[in-house]
Structure formats: structure tokens, C-alpha cells
Predict the 3D structure of the following.
Amino acid sequence: MERSLIIVKPDAVQRGLIGEILRRLEQRGLRFIGLKLMWIDRELAERHYAEHRGKAFFEELLSFITSGPVVVGVVEGPRAIEVTRKTMGKTDPAEAEPGTIRGDLALSIAQNVIHGSDSPEKAAYEISLFFREDELVSYERAIDRWIMG
Ligand SMILES: Nc1nc2c(ncn2[C@@H]2O[C@H](COP(=O)(O)OP(=O)(O)OP(=O)(O)O)[C@@H](O)[C@H]2O)c(=O)[nH]1
Ligand SMILES: [Mg+2]
């Protein structure tokens, strides 16, 4: 079982796509064990995107992710990191396949509607940035034996 951090980015919140994006992950079978709406401040944004410090788009990335409220969540499931990334589609929506979140809902690499962790190490780090341990809820759904079996 793996966990991944997802962020419904400010563009998606403004466009009224929170439900649509969460729906796709939920219908894939992933189990939400943490979920909240928040406004990311600059300090948290810098820690979350530390790997991109020094890149040409770093300032633009920080100002975008702090430009409005986001929804952050933790999903759980077998190979949840890879499954989430495949469901999201490629980083540049122009290259993302139709049927993926970005391939259906986005056009611009700077405004690509969703974030998902890209490795188990990053997932653990990102989850700890956004959620306290007591905000994550361990449970099983009755249906899980038909999804995660
Ligand atoms: N403006 C701009 N933003 C970029 C560019 N490349 C990447 N980004 C943004 O930076 C984010 C992080 O880049 P990556 O971590 O490489 O891509 P990713 O893992 O698919 O996306 P995240 O899930 O958001 O981390 C991307 O989601 C984009 O929004 C770029 O060339 N220009
Ligand atoms: Mg990334």
C-alpha cells in the first residue's frame, strides 16, 4: 500500500473543478485518508517545491501556487503514486493523453490543475509538510475488497 499527496491547484479551484478532479481519483479506486482546503503561504510553497529552486520558472511557480486556495489530499492504494500520476497525465497538458485529468482539463504547463507526488520519498516528505499525523484517518471501505484485493 502506498500514499501520495495531491494538490488541486489554484487554477482548478477558481475554475470550479475541485469535485471533478477528486471524483476522478476517487472513482479510480483510491481512498482519501486526508483532505482539506487551505491557502499555501510562500514558506510552505518553497519547501514543497525545493527541488525546483534555481530553475527559470521557480518564482512563477511559487507565485502561482500561492495565488489562491488549494485543496490538498492524501490518497492511499496499491501503487498509489504511479496510479495518481498516470491519472493526472503528463506535466505539460499539451502532451497529456485525453482521458487524463490534465489531458481533459488543462492547456498550460504553468496552470496544470493538479500536483501528485512522484516517489515514495517525496510522498512521505510532502505529506508531512501538509498534514499532521492526527489529520490522517486510517479506515477501510466495505468495497475495498473489490478494488484493492
Ligand atoms: N511556468 C512553468 N512552470 C513549469 C515549467 N515546468 C514545470 N512547471 C511547473 O512546475 C510544476 C512542477 O514541475 P515537475 O515537478 O517537474 O512536474 P510534475 O511533477 O508533473 O508536476 P507537480 O505534480 O506539480 O510537481 C509543474 O506541475 C508545472 O506546473 C515551465 O517550464 N514553466
Ligand atoms: Mg513534481
